[in-house]
Amino acid sequence: VFSRFLRRRPVCRILFQQFHSQHKEASDHSDAQPIDLTRFSPEKIRNFGIIAHVDHGKSTLADRLLEFTGAIKESSENKQVLDKLQVERERGITVKAQSASVVYKHKNEDYLLNLIDTPGHVDFSYEVSRSLSACQGVILLVDATQGVQAQTLANFLLSMEHGLPVIPVINKIDSPRANVEKVEQEMLNVLDVPASEIIHISAKFGQNIEKVLEAIVELLPPPVCDEKSSYDSSALLKALLFDSTYEKFRGVIANVAILDGTLRKNDIISSVYLSQKDGNSKSFYEVKEVGLMRPEHVATNVLYAGQVGYIVCGMKTVADAQIGDTLFHHKQPVIGLPEFKKAKPVVFGEMFPSEQTQYKNLEAALNRLMLNDRSVTKTSSKSFLLGPGFRIGFLGLLHMDVFCQRLQQEFGANVVMTRPTVPYKAILKANKRLQLKDETEIVISTPDDYPDNGLVKEFLQPIITGTIISPARYSQSIIELCVSRNGSAVSNSYISDATVMLQYKLPLDEIVTDFYDRLKSISSGYASFDYEEAGFETVNLTKVDVLLNGELVREFSKICTLEKSRKLGVITCSKLKEMIPRQPFQVSIQAAIGKSIIARQNLPAVKKDVLAKCGGGDFSRKMKLLQREAENQKHLRAIGNIKVPKDLFVKMLRE
């Protein structure tokens, strides 16, 4: 009846058609038949992740696993089924880890397999680390045409850190450029994986997919939990919240791994974080929906020990859905699991709404998107020109770019994002007037944080250890690039006859702009790059200010090393000369360090023909007019306001 009512009205008819098409699309990618979870004891469950370097075929393998087990229908249109974000489909990369549960029959017995497709780029490594906490093993995927890459090694070491067994798989064996023997040798040299343990597949055509499923069942261990607690409703619930997403009408959808006990619809739950926060767990939630990802959400009304699924319980804020939190039945507290290692942002940028009237909307959008991406940090900021905004911390440039794109696509937020910077540190001397103790450490994130040089004992800059894997013929050019960016060699080794692995210590500030692009350019796109933090080192740091006719413009101030300061000052002055509109008077553009001018450009005044009204007369009359104009120019320069358009500030902030 309601459907017929909707169809009678044009506007409602459109809404109904949109709902019907979305519902049909969801049903095409999901199994409508509910799963009887009572038949899966912990021994019949396998939780595993798929890890690899970017573009090695993780999402394609996930598609074939879903098809082979009947979770989705076999179709040529099944591409990146688990990549649900618009930005993922546009860029062809996985940004957000996604889960799916499938049933696989092995030797006449059914097994419940929970797979997690993880990102491959280094900027999203925190997604991988969180996801592995809900797994008991991983599939390590290596491209037969590219071999072992930097992020392959990083993800392999990450799985070792979690103590997870690894199933090595070589993908794309159908490619004409595949060199399986070379890749096997690289995996032996770098990962210590013998060729006899490696499975050869083609995820694109589904070749040997069944061998991967058999290896998952036979080689990976089941989740460790008390089997008696699986179906005993009185057993203490212990569930790990390892990921979350946000939907407009349902609020927070939490992905959980049930370690012990049973979680049912209508249960009242709380968390260790909330109980520690308010003392006696005053905050609690009623479970409104619980189920599995198939890969779409399928309500099952119950999850047992060892299973991975989702819950909807009315959480609405970032503080409520703490990643790594332990959930339990209300008034039946348990000992919390060890906290997740928090992500440390390495790139910072200031974000402002394009219109200040949109500030509240931007804040709400940021809070909701941060539920999906918990590696992002946010603090308040303010600009004299752009007004209040936020200082956002990211794990890399791609991470920042994708985050801003998601803000625009998912929430319609138009923002102004400044040029990325890295956090420096300053060790201050003791000062009684400012109540500073000796060796006081402060973080310098913006030029406004820069302290008086007289108070500073030393400055420190963040250092990373970069791992570059590339064909050997490009090694000399890569070494020259690293040396030009103040890098120092750590190691240099061959992982095969034609592939070299270079490790360099580099200042983080040297790689956050165009280092990756330059590396790809000089290696014809073959080199891969991964990095990890390596502490801090002493550096000569300074602040370059910009003066317009002697007046300081704080928005143009920048922090850099002393060696780069003069070059930065010259470039900044030259850009401003080209971008500032001509004024009725001459404008001097200066770059300064303290009271020392290190660069200068003069912007000439708008030309005015002062002799136009002088039709004749002697030379003294012309000189009188020119002298009067010169005095007028001097007066205007002293009292005049330089008109700098807002878009110029925005453009300079982004560069």
From TrEMBL:
<dbReference type="InterPro" id="IPR006297">
    <property type="entry name" value="EF-4"/>
</dbReference>
<keyword id="KW-0472">Membrane</keyword>
<dbReference type="GO" id="GO:0045727">
    <property type="term" value="P:positive regulation of translation"/>
</dbReference>
<protein>
    <recommendedName>
        <fullName>Translation factor GUF1 homolog, mitochondrial</fullName>
        <ecNumber>3.6.5.n1</ecNumber>
    </recommendedName>
</protein>
<dbReference type="GO" id="GO:0005525">
    <property type="term" value="F:GTP binding"/>
</dbReference>
<dbReference type="GO" id="GO:0003924">
    <property type="term" value="F:GTPase activity"/>
</dbReference>
<keyword id="KW-0999">Mitochondrion inner membrane</keyword>
<dbReference type="InterPro" id="IPR035654">
    <property type="entry name" value="LepA_IV"/>
</dbReference>
<dbReference type="InterPro" id="IPR000640">
    <property type="entry name" value="EFG_V-like"/>
</dbReference>
<feature type="binding site">
    <location>
        <begin position="171"/>
        <end position="174"/>
    </location>
    <ligand>
        <name>GTP</name>
    </ligand>
</feature>
<dbReference type="GO" id="GO:0097177">
    <property type="term" value="F:mitochondrial ribosome binding"/>
</dbReference>
<keyword id="KW-0342">GTP-binding</keyword>
<comment type="similarity">
    <text>Belongs to the GTP-binding elongation factor family. LepA subfamily.</text>
</comment>
<dbReference type="InterPro" id="IPR035647">
    <property type="entry name" value="EFG_III/V"/>
</dbReference>
<dbReference type="Pfam" id="PF03144">
    <property type="entry name" value="GTP_EFTU_D2"/>
</dbReference>
<dbReference type="Pfam" id="PF00009">
    <property type="entry name" value="GTP_EFTU"/>
</dbReference>
<dbReference type="InterPro" id="IPR004161">
    <property type="entry name" value="EFTu-like_2"/>
</dbReference>
<dbReference type="InterPro" id="IPR027417">
    <property type="entry name" value="P-loop_NTPase"/>
</dbReference>
<dbReference type="Pfam" id="PF00679">
    <property type="entry name" value="EFG_C"/>
</dbReference>
<dbReference type="InterPro" id="IPR005225">
    <property type="entry name" value="Small_GTP-bd"/>
</dbReference>
<keyword id="KW-0648">Protein biosynthesis</keyword>
<keyword id="KW-0378">Hydrolase</keyword>
<feature type="binding site">
    <location>
        <begin position="117"/>
        <end position="121"/>
    </location>
    <ligand>
        <name>GTP</name>
    </ligand>
</feature>
<keyword id="KW-0496">Mitochondrion</keyword>
<dbReference type="InterPro" id="IPR009000">
    <property type="entry name" value="Transl_B-barrel_sf"/>
</dbReference>
<dbReference type="InterPro" id="IPR000795">
    <property type="entry name" value="T_Tr_GTP-bd_dom"/>
</dbReference>
<comment type="similarity">
    <text>Belongs to the TRAFAC class translation factor GTPase superfamily. Classic translation factor GTPase family. LepA subfamily.</text>
</comment>
<feature type="binding site">
    <location>
        <begin position="52"/>
        <end position="59"/>
    </location>
    <ligand>
        <name>GTP</name>
    </ligand>
</feature>
<dbReference type="GO" id="GO:0005759">
    <property type="term" value="C:mitochondrial matrix"/>
</dbReference>
<dbReference type="InterPro" id="IPR013842">
    <property type="entry name" value="LepA_CTD"/>
</dbReference>
<dbReference type="InterPro" id="IPR038363">
    <property type="entry name" value="LepA_C_sf"/>
</dbReference>
<dbReference type="GO" id="GO:0006412">
    <property type="term" value="P:translation"/>
</dbReference>
<dbReference type="GO" id="GO:0005743">
    <property type="term" value="C:mitochondrial inner membrane"/>
</dbReference>
<dbReference type="InterPro" id="IPR031157">
    <property type="entry name" value="G_TR_CS"/>
</dbReference>
<feature type="domain" description="Tr-type G">
    <location>
        <begin position="43"/>
        <end position="224"/>
    </location>
</feature>
<dbReference type="Pfam" id="PF06421">
    <property type="entry name" value="LepA_C"/>
</dbReference>
<keyword id="KW-0547">Nucleotide-binding</keyword>
<comment type="function">
    <text>Promotes mitochondrial protein synthesis. May act as a fidelity factor of the translation reaction, by catalyzing a one-codon backward translocation of tRNAs on improperly translocated ribosomes. Binds to mitochondrial ribosomes in a GTP-dependent manner.</text>
</comment>
